[in-house]
Each structure stands twice: as C-alpha cells, then as structure tokens.
Design goal:
Helix content: 25-40%
Number of helices: 21
Shape: globular
Radius of gyration: 24 Å
CATH topology of the largest domain: Rossmann fold
Largest sheet: 12 strands, mixed
Mean pLDDT: 94
Strand content: 15-25%
Number of strands: 25
CATH superfamily of the largest domain: P-loop containing nucleotide triphosphate hydrolases
CATH architecture of the largest domain: 3-Layer(aba) Sandwich
Oligomer: single chain
Length: about 575
C-alpha cells in the first residue's frame, strides 16, 4: 500500500487513516491462502477457517519461528509490538516472506493510559482502529462465555437452595451442593473499572440468589481467554472448557463447568472466536491478531492456531510475548510451545535507552506525566548502570537455548553514544547481534538490518527447550523459575499456598506447567527492585488453578486482575467526525 513518509512522523491514527489499505483477500493470495478459507469482515479483515489446517495438512511448517520479547519495561512500554510489526516489514524489505502474530489488545488499556497495541509510526497493523476496538468480536465472545458460566453457577446455587434432591432427579440432574464460600469463578468485563474489583451479589432478598462476595476481572484475565489462545482445535477448545474448575462443593470436591452442564454452551459462544483474525501491516505483510491473555496473570501470548496457520504460508513467523523475557518468553516456551509442539528458532530482545536508564537508577517513569530530563538528555553513566537488566535477560534466553538479537528501539532523544554502549554490552553478553532499529520512523527499511541479523540467528540451528520437566513437583518447578530466571536465592510459601499445593497435588494437577503471576516491572516480585536483583527471597502468597488452560498459577506480590482508569484517561482525547466517520485521538 502507499504510505507517504514525512517528517516529523504524524500520529499513529493519522498514518493509519492515510494508508490505502488493500483488500485482505489480495494480501492472503500472495501467501497462498485461498479465499475459500477466509470469512470476510468487510474488505480489510477476515477470519481464517480452521479447515485450512485439516484440508492443507500436506503443507509443511516451513517457517522460521521468532519470538519478540524485551528487557524489563517501563510503564510506557518499550515498543515490542512496533518491533514485531517492523521486523515483518523488514523481512519484506529484504525480499523475504514474513507474517507477524500478536495479541488483540483489551479495550480497558486502550481507553485508559497505555493506548492500543497495533504498533506505531510506520510499523502498524491496519485497519488500526478496528484492531484496537472490537475487531471481530472475539473478546466480547470470551466475556459472554465467561459470564454465562457465572450466571449459570449462581442460578444453580439459587435453585438448589429451594428444591429437593428428588426434584432434581426428576429433571435429570443431580444436586451439586456448591459451597457459596468456595466459589472461585468471578465475572469479567473488558474495561478498566476499579469499583468492580469486589462486589456483593444477591442483594435484595432470597429471590435474588445467595448473598455472597465476588468481583470482576478484566476480560483478558479470564481463563476462557487463556484457553482460546492455547486451544489447537475446536475439539481441544471444548475439552479445555469442560475442565474449568469453578469452586468446590460442601464436601470439598471440585466443581467443573462439565458438572454444571454449561461447557457446551460456552463453547458455542466461542465457535467463531476460535478462528484467527487476519489483517495486514502498512507494508502489506500478513498480520494474525488472535486472543489476548494477560501476561502477568496468564501466559501472555497470542494463539497457537494463528501460529500454526502462519507457519505453513510464511518463511518467517514473528510472534510477540508479553512484557520481559522473564515473563512472556518464559511462558511462551514452558506453556505455549509445549502445547503447540513448535519451538522457536531465535528471539529478539527489545531494549531502549529509556528503560535502561530507569534500571540504572533513573527517576520514576509515570504514565501521563512528562519524562524527567535524565531520559531526554545524554547520560551514559545511567545507561551503563542499567545494562545489568539487559545482561540478565540475555542470560534467560541463553538458558532456554535461544540465540538472541537485541533490537535497540531508537527514540529521537537517544544519543549514538548511548546506543553504542547497549550494542557493545549485548555482544559481550552473548547476543548474536545488536541493531539500532528505526522502523517507527522509516517502516521496513528501518528494520532491514534487524531482519538480516535475525535471519542469521535463526539459521544457527538452535535447540530451544523448556526450563523444567513436567514430572517435577509444583514446588520444584516454582523454585526453578524463581532461582534460575528471576535470580532469587530461595522461595517461601504462605499457609494458603502450602494448602493449595497440597490440594492440587492430591488431585493430580501437579504435572501441569507453572504460570507465575507477578509484577512485570521487575525480575522479582517487587516492582521497586530494578536492574537485576539477586539473592532475595521470593514469596509465594497463594496458588490457583486454571485446569482448562492447563496450568497452575502461583501468586507473588500485589497482582491486580481489574485495572482502574487514571486521572487523565486516553478517552478524553478521542472523538469521531460525524460527517466523515474519521476517528481522532486513538493511539
């Protein structure tokens, strides 16, 4: 498509709306993806029918598989999505066929402070507004399926409190005797709303159901969303939905969605959502946008199905894992790659001068507030002090057997001397290469050198492997992650965590992978510990089960599953021209 570059770089929404977007069927055809496998949502986006994977089973998985991760980010983010899109464009610029695969963003952060996640500048996925808003309705389907289960659960408790066992036998049902104080399933909505973190349901008398305390999570924190991302077929989706554990009955036995009889209906609501969404970059590479699980609660990666499709029609599949290598990339390999059977060939580690200065002791970075001058003026000493974070993330990637290329995401305020420090440290720490990327301003041409470096790294024949075996105990797996990835000296467990580990072990869930829930702003559990903290005690405060998704998740530190809106949210700057329909202020 034609996108006129000019200086200074316009806003993301202006660039996206100026682009002449080609029909998605035309882009798909260039990759050998026939139109009969597409379900169109207008001309510019489509879903891929899962029949492609069965009917074209003859096509091998030919693509090199690249994961884009990052150093520990500032609250502003370091440009992983922009780099992911830019790398696909960079491959296109050097004559290679690449596709990118990323998560669909939640509308909570989009209307909050972070904004969307379609990339930025001249490395974006389009149509950008559709990408960042409803797209094809997948998140709404997840929300509906999750809340159907919530309603079914409360309705069952209500009716069981009113009717005898004989009445339920007449209906062909059995009483589940759900303990209202042991219900673990909450409700969800795809918006930031701190007032819903804790709520009381059943207020107003017995006719409104049992009175109990519950709450809301943001929709992308739902186990249903994690399942959508990890399912490998509609059959697998149905089975995983049926394994969701909702709580316990009055004898302590766990109650599942299958017990409740709602698993089939939940899957019906997801029958279209399971199909990967297909969009394009500004330079006409295919972009798969599918699923959006949280990275500090769930595994933080886009769908397996999108990667499976992309791997058959591309020379390179570039996917993005959430937050730093200690978070999304660890879960990418230990959870997602176990489920898909696809291991990566290389990793890209995104770093910025800004983030390294923060890890070197720079002032606090606060979204919505101007950056301190330490971040906008040259300070090589601050960068030097922060390089320990970069080196620690490269060590994590090395532990997984992944050759890494460092992408130094360039900001206008960076100095060449600061960027040179990062490059030198990265090479010394074992990176295959370290490249300054300028795709935000220059599109694929600005990521061409990165693409060449990644091509070299992916051709080294690495043998990436998970960090731990599933036969290890729950504690042994937790401790391996905490000590070998996070740098902790030891792990402690609260009474609640000890009890949960004992219960899940007895129930046979000890063979599942671990999905650690912790802060994304530090290697540790404490967001105030910057750089690469060592020798600390990592506290596990609780442990929960996501049996349908197929992992147990220990909690450490203060984890929030329902964000709140800031004092100056992003929606204040958004509007729509009622004459033309053009959106303004979306980023």
């Amino acid at each position: 498509m034609s996108v006129a570059k000019r200086k200074p770089v316009p806003s993301d929404i202006d660039i996206a709306q100026e682009a002449a977007v080609k029909p998605i069927s035309e882009i798909a055809a260039r990759y050998g993806l026939e139109d009969k496998y597409l379900e169109h949502y207008g001309d510019e986006k489509a879903k891929v029918r899962l029949e492609f994977l069965t009917e074209r089973a003859d096509l091998p998985r030919r693509a090199k598989y690249i994961d884009v991760t990052a150093i520990t980010p500032t609250p502003l983010g370091e440009g992983k999505s922009t780099t992911t899109v830019g790398l696909a464009q960079g491959f296109g610029f050097i004559g290679k066929k690449a596709a990118c695969a990323i998560r669909q963003p939640s509308m909570g952060p989009t209307f909050g402070i972070k904004g969307g996640a379609a990339g930025g500048g001249y490395s974006q996925i389009v149509p950008m507004a559709d990408f960042n808003l409803h797209l094809t309705g997948d998140t709404h389907a997840v929300q509906a399926a999750h809340n159907l289960c919530s309603a079914a659960l409360d309705a069952r408790m209500y009716h069981e409190s009113r009717w005898s066992d004989a009445y339920f036998e007449k209906l062909g049902l059995r009483k589940l005797n759900i303990d209202p104080y042991e219900v673990w399933w909450r409700r969800v909505m795809d918006m930031n709303d701190r007032t819903l973190r804790k709520v009381m349901t059943g207020i107003g008398g017995l006719d409104n159901g049992p009175l109990r305390e519950t709450g809301f999570d943001i929709a992308v924190a739902s186990e249903v969303m994690a399942i959508l991302a990890l399912a490998t077929s509609l059959k697998d989706l149905r089975e995983r939905i049926g394994r969701i554990v909702l709580g316990a009955d009055k004898s302590g036995k766990q109650v599942t969605t299958e017990d409740l009889g709602v698993a089939g209906a939940m899957t019906i609501l997801l029958k279209d959502a399971i199909k990967p969404n297909l969009l394009q970059t500004l330079e006409e590479q295919l972009a798969f946008v599918h699923a959006g699980p949280f990275a500090n609660i769930a595994h933080g990666n886009s769908s397996i199905l999108a990667d499976l499709v992309a791997s058959k029609i591309s020379d390179y599949v570039i996917t993005e894992s959430g937050f730093g290598a200690d978070m999304g990339c660890e879960k990418f390999i230990d959870i997602k790659c176990r489920a898909s059977g696809m291991m990566p060939d290389a990793a890209v580690l995104v770093a910025t001068v800004r983030a390294l200065k923060m890890h070197g002791g720079g002032p606090k970075v606060v979204p919505g507030k101007p950056l301190a001058t330490a971040y906008t003026q040259e300070d090589r000493e601050l960068v030097k002090k922060g390089l320990v974070n970069l080196e620690a993330h490269l060590a994590v990637l090395k532990k997984f057997g992944l050759p890494a290329v460092v992408a130094i995401n360039a900001f206008p305020t960076d100095s060449p001397a600061e960027q040179d420090l990062i490059r030198e440290a990265a090479i010394k720490a074992g990176a295959v290469d370290a490249v300054v990327t300028k795709n935000w301003a220059d599109g694929g041409e600005g990521a061409a050198e990165l693409a060449r470096a990644v091509d070299k790294a992916a051709s080294l024949g690495c043998k990436a492997a998970p960090l731990y075996g599933l036969d290890l105990s729950i504690k042994a797996k937790i401790e391996k992650i905490a000590t070998e990835v996070y740098g902790a000296a030891s792990v402690t467990y609260s009474p609640a965590a000890e009890s949960g580990i004992e219960t899940y072990t007895k129930l046979g869930y000890d063979k599942l992978p671990i999905c650690m829930a912790k802060t994304q702003y530090s290697f540790s559990h404490d967001p105030a510990l910057k750089g690469a903290p060592k020798g600390y005690v990592f506290p596990v405060t609780d442990i929960r089960l996501a049996a349908g998704a197929g992992f147990v998740y220990p909690l450490s530190g203060d984890i929030n599953t329902m964000p709140g809106l800031p004092s100056k949210p992003g929606y204040l700057g958004m509007d729509i021209d009622t004459e033309t329909g053009m959106i303004t202020g979306l980023s």
